[in-house]
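Hey, sorry to bother you again with one of my protein questions. A protein chain has come my way and I'm curious about its shape. It would help a lot if you went through both lines with me. I owe you a coffee for this, so here goes:
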Amino acid sequence: MLLNCKEPAVFFVGHGDEFNNEWVWKQELIVPAGKHELTVAGPGKDLWTTSVDVQANKRVMVDAYKEVRKTVDWSRGDQLKSLPRFKAGTASAEVAIQKVTGQFAANPTQINCGDSARLTWSSEGAPQTPLNGTAVAASGDQTVQPKQTTDYKFTADGPRGVYTSDANVNVTNGVTASLSVSPTEVRYHKVGDKVDQSGSATVTWSAGNADTVAVDPFGTVGANGNREVPITPAKNSVGPIDETVTYSLRASNACGGTETRTATLHIMGSIDPARPVVNETTLETKLTFNSIYFPTNLPTVANPKEGLVASQERRMEEIVTNFKQYLTMRPEANLILEAHADVRGAVAFNKALSQRRADLVKSYLIDHGIPAERIETRAMGSEHNLTDKEVEALKAQNPNATPADRERVEKHIVAFRLANNRRVDVSLSTTGQTSQRFFPYNSDDLNVLLGEQKPAGKKPVAAPAAKKPAAQKK
């Protein structure tokens, strides 16, 4: 006997001789009220199927041979509270058809690519329980890892009906990614074979919901990380450098999600030809070659940047070049600037004037790349002026003075003596060497330095009156 289907393995409810007697002994197939399809099958015989409409508290008797049926009252039905699935006795049998019930769920219902969800189910009264078409136990659980959004369907099928339920697991396949470079611009400088300025940059990345991550030019990397990269431009020939390095991130997952990101690093600088090799002694000599000389009364309080004439500015350029190179050999070296003023003017005025001269020279050095902490200044005023005898000796030793120059000096000896004391001496802290005090006879602005001519575009500046030092009184 088959109920509600013709598949014996699932819908078999009993044998015909278990349901063919109803007089002293009870032989009953008890079903819920409703329409049912009853099939009788036997070996070597064609199936016989009929539809039976069973009402509550009614008994339907079907004669399979005569194809007739009879419906009578069944008072016991109203009295039944519960029934066992099967009960047999002497020439008696009761087979109760259980209602098909079930439960099915997925947790969680939203996952990222590569994550898992758990399916759980249970059922009663169903001998056939497929999950997405594959037979499973009546109750159980299963871990799934779908690569795309998937609908799972559980079915519990039996003689008393069908239970079906769906559970949808949504898969997020989108990849989130970021890529950055810090700093975004670096400077590079190389002289000959020596790199004297080169920094580094840090490439940082992250990728979410990705199982494959690669950063060009590093190759395969972890989902999150950073890497410090040295700065090496592609160019290796002499000339300016202006290059952009591009880093690219590619992230993907097994669910088809992909993402790309790029970040750039700007390299600025230059490659200069190798400088001639100069030893320390040569540089020390160049740095102390000669002092810096100033016109009368310059710089002023009103204009502290005025006073370096063209010839002395060229001398300052030499000091900058040589001291930068010297620092590569002796990084602890300092330049000591000792500034002087001639005897005219009050002591305080001369002290302040010499300080402005030292500050002007220091400012020039800093503006041209010399670190401020490598420069010391001393304002001497007119307290340590060269004596007339010392000026005469220097005049005799000066290799820049021609006979015509010496004759000219003799005619203007007083102005010459004053001009020799309007200067800034340059000393090296490493050796104690001090610049030579040879007056620049061969400069093209000699008249300005001697005080015979005002600087171009400058108004005459009168020095404040002061008593003549006792050493000058004759």
Observations:
- The longest strand covers residues 258-272.
